[in-house]
Specification:
The chain is mostly helical. It is built from 3 helices and no strands. The protein has one domain.
């Protein structure tokens, strides 16, 4: 699984398997991925700064936030 697809706060069972608190037999991570979380944080910053929003539609802001999240994940992978 790519770093950006990992959950921000994984939950592990006693066997060390990342699991859901609802479906404890599942091996699939739950919750927001790192990419989703980083994009949300970038979007929050963009929306808080009027100068960063200029000439951007809501879709444009969302794409910009995703691009920033992807850049952060890429930089973390290269570190």
């Amino acid at each position: 699984m790519k770093n950006g697809d990992m959950p921000i706060k994984p939950i592990f069972n006693d066997a060390g398997i990342c699991t859901s608190p609802i479906h404890l037999n599942s091996n699939d991570p739950i919750g927001l991925t790192k990419r989703e979380y980083f994009a949300a944080m970038a979007m929050q910053g963009i929306l808080a700064n009027q100068r960063l929003q200029m000439d951007k539609t809501a879709e444009g802001v969302a794409i910009c936030a995703i691009n920033h999240a992807d850049a952060l994940l890429s930089a973390l992978d290269n570190e």
